[in-house]
Write a structure and sequence with these properties.
Layout: E1 4-9, H1 16-32, E2 39-44, H2 50-57, E3 62-66, H3 83-88, E4 93-96, H4 99-104, H5 109-121, E5 125-130, H6 134-138, H7 142-154, H8 159-162, E6 166-169, H9 183-201, H10 203-208, E7 211-214, H11 219-226, E8 233-236, H12 243-250
Parallel strand pairs: 1-2, 1-8, 2-3, 3-4, 4-5, 5-6, 6-7, 7-8
Helix pairs in contact: 1-2, 1-12, 5-7, 7-9, 11-12
The structure holds 2-phosphoglycolic acid.
2-phosphoglycolic acid (PGA) binds next to strand 8.
């Protein structure tokens, strides 16, 4: 069966010392509060801190993810970081298609698909973000927007490849705004995503894929969200910058 995953997306926060302190705080909290076996914690710091975070992860109970990857294999692409580089640093996960990258850096469903391909080729697990903006929700288009993002970003994959993917539903109006989707709003989109996966890949594959919720998830609302049948964890932004909150969220199953 699918895993429970709580992934922390630090975004562009923390200087080196703050990052070091945060990872240490997470580690000491995890020594006190043992995570249930079926819960996986993933820490996604900015690129420059991946090595330090991986060193700590080897002695702790969390895995490490990057926040972005190039859609190209290698070569003259100044400033880009390839999936092969991440693979060689033993990074396990990578966030793809976050709404901030779609909104500020022009990422399209096609870029997302190319990045997913790069990651799978190099043995990393993509955490693929989908979600509607406020105007789309207000005009009732949330199901069709998410469907398009899932189909165009992922449906070129084989069933075997699809099993390596984690999907994160993040309604853009809930990210960093303090406005969380209600468990009912989140659950109906998660169920929709799972039904799309079932129609394309079969129910067994769909049942094995973790679908995370993201958008102002915090210790006070995580339990209610994670209790929904199709919500398998969270992609946590702001609250992942506080070790106590992040670990409390991971303990919310
Ligand atoms: P937030 O961000 O938890 O701060 O709303 C979530 C995300 O962007 O992944």
């Amino acid at each position: 069966m699918r895993k429970h995953i709580v992934a922390g997306n630090w975004k562009m926060n923390c200087n080196f010392n703050e990052a070091d302190e945060l990872v240490n705080d997470i580690m000491s909290r995890l020594e006190e509060d043992q995570l249930p076996r079926e819960t996986l914690m993933v820490v996604c710091p900015p690129f420059p801190y991946l090595e330090m975070t991986t060193d700590y992860a080897n002695d702790s109970y969390f895995m490490v993810g990057a926040q972005n990857v190039s859609d190209r294999e290698k070569g003259a692409y100044t400033g880009e970081v390839s999936a092969e580089m991440l693979e060689s640093m033993e990074i396990d996960y990578c966030i793809v298609g976050h709404s901030e990258r779609r909104a500020y850096y022009g990422e399209t469903d096609q870029t997302v698909a190319a990045k997913v391909d790069q990651l799978l080729k190099h043995g990393l697990k993509p955490i693929v973000c989908v979600g509607e903006v406020l105007e789309e929700r207000e005009s009732g288009k949330q199901f069709e927007v998410v469907q398009r993002q899932v189909e165009q970003g992922l449906f070129h994959l084989t069933a075997e490849q699809m099993r390596e993917v984690v999907i994160a539903y993040e309604p853009v109006w809930a990210i960093g705004t303090g406005k969380t989707a209600t468990p009912e709003q989140a659950q109906e989109i998660h169920a929709h995503i799972r039904s799309l996966l079932a129609a394309k890949y079969g129910q067994n594959v769909a049942d094995d894929i973790s679908i995370l919720y993201g958008g102002s998830c915090k210790p006070s609302n995580a339990k209610e969200l994670f209790a929904c049948p199709d919500i398998d964890g969270g992609l946590i932004g702001g609250a992942s910058l506080k070790a106590d909150d992040f670990v409390a969220i991971a303990m919310s199953f």
